[in-house]
Amino acid sequence: MPISLTLTDGVIPADKTALAVSKITESFLRHHGLGGNKVMTPNVTAHLNILPKGHTFAAGLPVEGAWIETKTPSFALADHDIQAAFFGEATQILHDLSGGSRQGPHLVERRPRRRRHVESRWEGHDQRRAWAGRGRRLTN
Fold first, then answer.
1. How many CB atoms lie within 10 A of CB 32?
2. How far apart are CA 49 and CA 42, in angstroms?
3. pLDDT at 100
4. Stretch 21-44: mean pLDDT, rounded?
5. Which segment of 29-38, 79-88, 130-139 scores lowest on mean pLDDT?
6. Are 68 and 119 in contact (CB under 8 A)?
7. How far, in Å, CA of 87 to CA of 121, rounded?
8. To 5 degrees, how large is the angle CA 95–CA 101–CA 103?
9. Angstrom distance (rounded) from CA 125 to CA 138
10. What span, in angstroms and rounded, lies between the C-alpha atoms of 11 and 106?
């Protein structure tokens, strides 16, 4: 169940990016009641993309921001309350690590208002699809 975190360079300090991935992964597991689960924990993977300024856009215009995306089987993020809680907390994690403050769903940093952007999305998979864990094919 990969979590992708894409950041414009400088949105959070470089020495805090691994911490961001760790905290977001912990949040995902906790909101599903899976914190510390020895089977599922290693199956929640993540990757971090840091793009140079001028290479991230919203409405066709350059922005500095953060994007959190997940690709999950049907049982993950299946409930609206879990979606709202997880993505809300993940957004707050990025706010805190950026040195900014929270104001609505937007990343508030020490940057002009027009240059702030945060986006979260998830992609769920049909229940009949299979997934893999620890080298074995699994189903829902």
1. 20
2. 20
3. 65
4. 92
5. 130-139
6. yes
7. 8
8. 100
9. 14
10. 13
